[in-house]
Amino acid sequence: MSKFRPIALSAFVFAFAAGFAATGAQAQDSIFPFNLFQGLNAQQGQPMQQASLPIDVEADVQPTKQLVDDPTGAKVGSITIDTNTKYLYLSLPDGKAWRYGVGVGRDGFHWTGHVYIARKAEWPDWTPPEAMLDRRPELPTYMAGGIDNPLGARAMYLFNEHGDTQFRIHGTNEPDTIGHAVSSGCIRMLNVDVEDLYTRVKVGTQVNVI
After folding, report:
1. Could you tell me how far CA 49 lies from the centroid of its own chain?
2. Which domain holds residue 120?
3. Catalytic (active-site) positions
4. Quick one: pLDDT at residue 117?
5. Which residues, 6 or more positions from 30, have their beta carbon under 8 angstroms from its beta carbon?
6. What integer pLDDT is reported at residue 60 of this predicted model?
7. Distant-in-sequence, close-in-space partners of 50: CB < 8 Å, separation ≥ 6
8. Domain for residue 64, yes or no?
9. Which residues contact residue 48 at a Cβ distance below 8 angstroms, ignoring those fewer than 6 apart?
10. More confident residue, 19 or 66
11. Long-range contacts of range 147-150, CB-CB < 8 Å, 24 or more positions apart?
12. Does residue 3 fall inside a structural domain?
């Protein structure tokens, strides 16, 4: 399981969160130019929630990211999620791809389709959809971002032509679920993996779930 420790400053421990959130209603369908092999800072115009939390994520598990031959044939810069093999691919030039292990929707919550990233968030807040609250009334109606939040360290919000799908690519505080079909439809990643993917994609990135 993942371990977490707060960063100490002098003799005290300070925690804070600062950020803003914007809707993805104006998100473009095109992918902005960027270096697929390097991390990126946030660019102006990206609808995203940013936060700086004094949290150091120490995982007992190793990152799943590997550079592989791209089996998807997808456009460079796009994401393909194979729900059968439980892998997410970020297509790169020269027929390569970054591949990450993921957790996917369990029986009854499996879905496929073409979507895009409309918003990005660091240490995101979580508001469970009404349908989830109907199934699990014991859940909170809202949870602030942090180490106990089920969305983990990062989230990428998936929209289609009709708007918000309610599905996300997000981190998890349950690393043992990676490689399994356990979620309510969201795509789970190790926190260390989702933090890496987050730096490599833009709002507008196309996502094909198969």
Report:
1. 13
2. 24-209
3. 170, 186
4. 98
5. 204
6. 62
7. 18, 19, 20, 42, 121, 122
8. yes
9. 21, 22, 42, 119, 120, 121, 122, 203
10. 66
11. 147/4, 147/55, 147/173, 148/173, 149/123, 149/124, 149/125, 149/173, 150/126, 150/174
12. no
| Domain-embedded: residue 61 | yes
Instruction: Indicate yes or no: pTM above 0.85.
Output: no
The domain that contains 169 carries what CATH number? 2.40.440.10
Task: Please write down the HEC assignment for all residues of the chain.
Answer: CCEEEECCECCECCCCCCCCCCCCCCCCCCCCCCCCCCCCCCCCCCCEECCCCCEEEECCCCCCCEEEECCCCCCCCCEEEECCCCEEEEECHHHEEEEEECEEECCCCCCCEEEEEEEEEECCCECCCHHHHHHCCCCCCCECCCCCCCCCCEEEEEEECCEEEEEEEEEECCHHHCCCEEECCCEEEEHHHHHHHHHHCCCCCEEEEC
All residues at 6 or more sequence positions from 168 whose CB lies less than 8 Å from its CB, including other chains: 151, 155, 156, 157, 158, 186, 187
Q: Find out whether 41 and 202 touch, Cβ atoms under 8 Å.
A: no
For range 75-96, the mean pLDDT: 98
Q: Which amino acid is at 33?
A: P
